[in-house]
Amino acid sequence: MKVLSALILLSIVPLFVACANTDSHAVRQKMLQPVIEQQCQRELKSSKVWHTASLLLSEAKQKNAQQSICGCVGKNALKDVSNQDLVMASVNEDSKNKVVRQAVMNSLTSCAQEVLQ
Prior knowledge:
Layout: H1 2-18, H2 25-46, H3 48-54, H4 59-76, H5 83-91, H6 93-116
Helix pairs in contact: 2-4, 2-5, 2-6, 4-6, 5-6
């Protein structure tokens, strides 16, 4: 199992090194976007503000608003994240979790305000 993990890591590392330049910011963002959107969904569902705001919405409108908000978060969350942090997030699970949480929290409020206005 260790050998398989090492082989997988050795085959993936060159890909991440190749993606280390500034032109690859979009590639890394696309890799993390689904994770960011999932984290956004979790944050929304646990938010007291969301619970209060969604009381006035039908279930269909709640789902639509959640998708719109988390789509916005997924597209915008990593704009202020450095390339170095993105590279670390690509190869380290703890770094990825930290970057995702911070990115979601930084953009969630502004995206929710845009969608819910």
